[in-house]
Amino acid sequence: MKLRRYHIWTIGCQMNEADSRHLAAQLERLGLEAVAEPVEADLVVLNTCVVRQQAENKIYGKLGSLRKMKQQRPHLVIALMGCLVGVKDNPALRAKYPYVDVFVPPSGVDRLVNHLLTHVPALSDRSAPDSYDLPALERHAVTAFVPAVLGCSHACAYCVIPLRRGAEQSRPAEEVLHEVSELVRQGVREVMLLGQIVDRYGLDRSDGPDLADLLNQVCAIPELLRVRFLTSHPNWMTDKLLDAVASEPKICPQLEVAAQSGNNEVLRRMRRGYTREKYLDLVARIRRRIPDAAIHTDIIVGFPGETEEQYRDSYRLLEEVEFDKVHIAKYSPRPGTTAAQETDDVSEEVKERRRKELDDFQKTIQERKNAALRGCLLEVLVESEQKGRWQGRTPQNKIVFFEGAESGPGRLEQVRIEWTGPFSMIGKMELP
Ligand code: SAH
Question: Is 231 in the pocket of ligand 1 (CB under 6 A)?
Answer without folding.
Answer: yes
